[in-house]
């Protein structure tokens, strides 16, 4: 097979893997795929496995090695692809510490590869100058380049966000996130809510003793701590994270909660958009926290300062950040991601 055919085969296959990877990694893309998230996830995983088998097992006939004189450059690109495969395997089947490292390696390798692709497109503009100084353009080359540019555009637009996530920091409409190492900061709005403790209020509705707590009242409640491995549904994990806060079930019972009469509890984020729901059995079994400290320090803004929900043994999208409201009811109210196709029962292992 000619170099050109192998090259375009890689453009199509690797482009699909990159696009589905962005759909898993970036919040705006995840919202767009909605109920097709699981399908996109398996396309990314299955495509990556098949691509890796071909890349390693039939490298001489499958990989589009550059023409003579540029084999060293092709070797570096091949190295990046192998790093993507190794880190992807770590995300898929590795233990928690391995996944934490693999997340950064996978994102960094993808970022470098995307930047190279942008440079590759720019250096192959379908316009050239002949010896006389006249500019020429080929219609066929122009159409191919335009098709590649159109496909690359949404990826290019996502590069700044990917770069900030890989570095562990995400700058939104306001200020720096102060994200913790290992955590990939997600938000469904532009930036992070700025809620000073003195202005924070927690509204609890639907109970016989519906109430509103300020920060000083919240601090008087009984506290406990949990040590967990924090899992995101996209695959990354932060191992051995200690959260401290107020036991949710004990807090609701102290306000007169009847779990038989009002078995559903909905949580509201201070971003004004995000919500999620737990049922009484999940609350009793997994003992969620109203958490305000992580690893002995106050929550960073990116992690939900001043108070967030923390649900052990469930994926992170159940743990609502910037918690400002709780409402108990007789019926379920689908959360932000559940409305977009995610399962209500986000138990660890239910996706992978």
TrEMBL record:
Name under which the protein is recorded: Molybdopterin-dependent oxidoreductase
Organism: Sulfobacillus harzensis
Keyword tags: Membrane, Transmembrane, Transmembrane helix
Domain of life: Bacteria
Annotated TM spans: 42-63, 75-94, 100-122, 143-163
Location of the Oxidoreductase molybdopterin-binding domain: 193-337
InterPro entries linked: OxRdtase_Mopterin-bd_dom, OxRdtase_Mopterin-bd_sf
Pfam families according to UniProt: Oxidored_molyb
């Amino acid at each position: 097979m000619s170099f050109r055919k192998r090259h375009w085969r890689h453009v199509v296959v690797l482009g699909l893997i990159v696009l589905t990877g962005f759909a898993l990694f970036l919040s705006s893309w995840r919202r767009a795929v909605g109920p097709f998230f699981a399908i996109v996830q398996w396309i990314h995983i299955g495509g990556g496995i098949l691509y890796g088998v071909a890349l390693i097992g039939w490298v001489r006939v499958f990989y589009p090695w550059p023409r003579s004189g540029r084999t060293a450059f092709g070797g570096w690109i091949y190295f990046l692809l192998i790093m993507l495969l190794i880190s992807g395997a770590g995300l898929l089947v590795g233990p928690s510490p391995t996944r934490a490292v693999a997340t950064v390696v996978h994102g960094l390798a993808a970022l470098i590869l995307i930047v190279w692709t942008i440079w590759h497109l720019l250096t192959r503009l379908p316009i050239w100058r002949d010896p006389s100084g006249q500019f020429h353009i080929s219609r066929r080359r122009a159409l191919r380049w335009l098709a590649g540019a159109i496909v690359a555009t949404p990826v290019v637009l996502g590069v700044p966000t990917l770069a900030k996530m890989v570095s562990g920091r995400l700058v939104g409409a306001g200020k720096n996130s102060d994200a913790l190492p290992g955590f990939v900061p997600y938000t469904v709005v532009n930036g992070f809510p700025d809620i000073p403790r003195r202005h924070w209020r927690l509204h609890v509705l639907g109970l016989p003793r519906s109430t509103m707590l300020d920060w000083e009242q919240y601090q008087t409640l009984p506290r406990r701590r949990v040590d967990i491995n924090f899992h995101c549904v996209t695959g990354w994990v932060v191992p051995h994270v200690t959260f401290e806060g107020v036991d949710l079930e004990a807090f609701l019972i102290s306000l007169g909660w009847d779990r038989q009469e009002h078995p559903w509890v909905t949580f509201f984020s201070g971003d004004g958009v995000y919500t999620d729901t737990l049922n009484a059995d999940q609350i009793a079994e997994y003992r969620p926290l109203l958490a305000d400290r992580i690893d002995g320090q106050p929550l960073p803004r990116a992690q939900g300062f001043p108070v967030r929900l923390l649900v052990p043994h469930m994926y992170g999208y159940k743990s609502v950040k910037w918690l400002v409201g709780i409402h108990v009811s007789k019926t379920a109210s689908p959360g932000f991601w559940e409305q977009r196709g995610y399962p209500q029962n986000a138990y660890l292992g239910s996706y992978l």
